[in-house]
Amino acid sequence: MSAPGAAAAARELAPQVTLLARFADTAPLRETIEGLAQQAPFRHLVVPRGGRMSVAMTNCGTWGWHSDRRGYRYVDVDPETGRPWPAIPPHFLELAARAAAAGGFPGYLPDACLVNRYAVGAQMGAHRDYDELDMSHPIVSVSIGLPATFLWHGTRRTDPPLTVLLEDGDVLVWGGVARAGYHAVRKL
Ligand code: FE
Predict the structure, then answer these.
(1) Are 131 and 73 in contact (CB under 8 A)?
(2) How far is the CA of 129 from the centre of ligand 1 (A)?
(3) pLDDT of residue 1
(4) Among 62, 67, 78, 119, which residue has the least CB neighbours within 10 Å?
(5) Are 64 and 85 in contact (CB under 8 A)?
(6) Residues 67-78, buried b or exposed e (16+ Cβ, 10 A)?
(7) Mean pLDDT across 18-25
(8) Residue 3 C-alpha to ligand 1 middle, in angstroms?
(9) 0.90 cut: is pTM over it?
(10) For residue 123, how many other CB atoms are within 10 A of its CB?
């Protein structure tokens, strides 16, 4: 077993969808997230149709993803606290840039970082990340904690998915032709 971040193998699962196995050292990330959650608590957002998401979320960055009865959008003030989201910690930015480059997207500097907490029983239905204004930037997804099954549907929501087991430290990068791909997380 190799140390986290040590020249992890990059595996292209689909065009411009790259799995970087054991790429991230997650202990410092966990610790930082605990601090972030004290400033911007995890919450179960309401979706436009009225239900609550099983996944708990918070954000850091200039912009944070939000959902309520009015729809999905990015907001620069946390509606829960009335304060701006905490800044993205420098080691998150460094990891994101390094992972994006390894996935074929050099020069990545994110201004939004959504943190999704899956407790046992939580899941995420098939969706695409489509509320961002500039689709030229990739999505960098870092897995921390329990293994989960990620489903990559790709172009159509109804396409049979690739199933990908994501484990602690795995990083998934998608962008370019895959940027608007449908994806989901099976119930944990
Ligand atoms: Fe997503």
Answers:
(1) yes
(2) 5
(3) 45
(4) 119
(5) yes
(6) beeeeeebeeeb
(7) 98
(8) 28
(9) yes
(10) 15
